[in-house]
Amino acid sequence: MIVDARSRPSGPRSPSLGAYDLGGILRRLDWVLLLAAATLVGYGLWAIGGITRFDVPGNPDYYVTRQATAAGLGIVGMLVAIAIPPSLYQRHWRFIYGATIGLMVFVFVVAEAIRGSKRWIDVGPFQFQPSEFGKLFFVLALAGFMVERGRRVGEISTVLTAVGLGLAPMILVFLQPDLGSALVYVGALAGVLFLSGVRWLHLALVVVAALLVIASVLWFLPAAGVQVLKPYQTERLIGFTNPDSDPGDLTYNVIQSRTAVGAGGLSGRGVEGASQTRLDYLPEHATDFVFASFAEQRGFVGTSILLLLYLLVVWRALRVITVAGNLYGAVVAGGIVSAFLFQVFVNVGMTMGIAPVTGIPLPFVTVGGSSMVANLLAIGVLQSIHARGTSGRFR
Prior knowledge:
- With 395 residues, the chain is mainly α.
- It has one domain.
- Helices cover 69% and strands 2% of the residues.
- It has helices at residues 2-6, 22-27, 31-51, 62-83, 86-91, 93-110, 130-148, 156-174, 179-196, 200-223, 231-241, 252-264, 270-273, 275-278, 290-323, 327-351, 369-391, and strands at residues 121-123, 126-128.
- A hairpin with a 2-residue loop joins strand 1 (121-123) and strand 2 (126-128).
- Helix 6 packs antiparallel against helix 7 (130-148) and helix 16 (327-351) runs antiparallel to helix 17.
- The radius of gyration is 21 Å and the shape is globular.
- The two termini are 23 Å apart.
């Protein structure tokens, strides 16, 4: 599949084809992907409506209204992204990369610390989280770099430069601190490197280097008296590796989460009967542990539908890679689907104790306007790649 995409020209095609033939683009959208995304948005709003019904006394629709507003903004952004040709991102990847770094730095300058983290910028009544949008911008920029170095992709210097470019936003996000988002950037980088055609040996070296960094952060540096992680991040990792270490504190959230998932049974306990969620036994039930809350309310049937919708989006996104008209489109699609799949796997996994608690949002479900808008923008970019790949129009 990747050979076909890479064999096509990476530059723009004939100018006479037109850049913004919206009628032609609309006819060539992946309507299955669009329907899956729309269903996910609606399904997520329905889920949040039940999960947060008792969170704000006197206003049961508070969070679902905010989430629906974000979805509306995201749909507008998605339509704009569909109209923009991917070649524009490719030509201006340096600007996109610089803007991404600038946004990350800007957070440290203007953001107020909330529970020890500087992640959000207030924009009127809304909070804007740059790291969520950075996941998409990161892929657009790194893909541009790798395609520009296409003839040298087999050289270790190219791989090291790409990793170096990737480390800058990762470190800035990690310092906010936001370990979960930083890990999503790692997943996106892996997808970009793989789809770019990096040699297996070089990929293996990058993996070994990453494992050494992880070992240093978790064991070697702390043994030498240098603490890289925040105390609560260390506690989360200890709780994951040793679930019975401190059930009254370190692993309380995970224990309550697993209880909620198990209590849901086949068809769920409903909104009224979901005591873990309704009575706040499960902390962060609309954000980090939203999947556990949904499992308690809607059971195996409800969560299976959600996971099947995610699978449908991933399948169609992978198909975009195969029909992308050039290497840049294929690499961008691969980076987006890698980041998306990573978020779903880790968020669902941490609610059941098979992945560490990192604060990664569940796409289209977790309460958070920035995440909703950024995911819909990513769908728009995938649709833009698909439409121009199947029509031969890249400008």
